[in-house]
Amino acid sequence: MAGTTRTDIRARIVAVGLKATLQRIIIFESLLNLHDAHPTAEEVFQQLKTAHPGISLGTVYKTLDSFVEANLVKRVLSDSKRRFDVNEQPHGHIYCTNTKEIIDYTDPELEKLVADYFKAKNFRNFNLQQVSVQIIGSKSDPNEQISISSI
Amino acid sequence: MAGTTRTDIRARIVAVGLKATLQRIIIFESLLNLHDAHPTAEEVFQQLKTAHPGISLGTVYKTLDSFVEANLVKRVLSDSKRRFDVNEQPHGHIYCTNTKEIIDYTDPELEKLVADYFKAKNFRNFNLQQVSVQIIGSKSDPNEQISISSI
DNA sequence: ATCCATGCAAATGTTTTGCACAGCT
DNA sequence: AGCTGTGCAAAACATTTGCATGGAT
């Protein structure tokens, strides 16, 4: 649960101007639970329907879209399905062409480097919302974790 | 056309270990023509079928997949369809949430900055193939170009 | 009470697949 | 001949839509 209560969730939903319906709350909750999986609408629906048999797949689609629209959630690069990610601290993604996994890559130093770079840039006719780094490659051993160290 | 002849294309296809069939050649050619549009399989098919009525959509799908597999072409973040991009010099993408456009962002200084950053990183169990920067935001005026200047 | 969100199911859009045939070596 | 790639059409999969009903403020 990671310390995010329903009250918190309700507040976050209301904060972006959406009504805090039960469906929106449990879908957001589900996104938090499935955070590491960068789930599809279908996956959110599957996780939800045991505890909430009434929920409809169409609603999950519509709700995820409205979350993205409201900037509560982001879409991520994926293998032909729409995948979603709760909007936490800035981070990049590692995409493994071998296992098709999308793995979060959180690296404040890199985020700062890139953010600073863009601070000195002036965009005309463009409202910059977000910069993120995509890392593409493949795991040598699909069953092992990736680890990273500075030289 | 940009100075890439069929002989060049043939060579690039053979270089990655694929047979240079006519379909592969014209699909690759089409990707070069449509480069700015980051086309879907369907869009490639549409562009092709006038000049080559025999070509099949299924073949376009299969061929694009094999190009990606062979690292001749990249997939790009998109609005729920698979979009493709010929593998030219390193560049990022600007995604406009307003118009859903994907616009190339070529910035050698940024590419160097990021590449250098990752040179000093040591990945274990991961073969890094590519790092790219995604910029997300929205055009103020959908009909105008974005321009960028350093401060 | 009003308005917007939801559930349902049908429609649409996208991608994958299997198989028979064609083309290259 | 033997391989692999292609075309076709069906199947599978993913997303969107319209509308009647339900729920939040």
3D shape of chain A:
globular
Radius of gyration of chain A equals: 17 Å
Low-confidence stretches of chain A: none
Q: Which pair of chains forms the biggest interface, and how many residues does each contribute?
A: A-B, 43 and 43 residues
**How many helical elements of chain A?**
5
Order of strands, widest sheet of chain A:
4-3-6
Q: What do the pLDDT scores of chain A average to?
A: 91
Classify the beta-strand content of chain A into a percent band: 25-35%
What oligomeric state do the depicted chains represent? homodimer
Structural class of chain A: alpha+beta
Gap from first CA to last CA of chain A: 36 Å
Largest sheet of chain A: 3 strands, mixed
Number of strands of chain A: 7
Percentage of residues assigned to helices of chain A:
25-40%
SSE order of chain A, as H and E? HHHHEEEEHEEE
What labels would you give this structure?
alpha+beta, two-stranded antiparallel sheet, 151 residues, 3-stranded mixed sheet, homodimer, DNA-binding
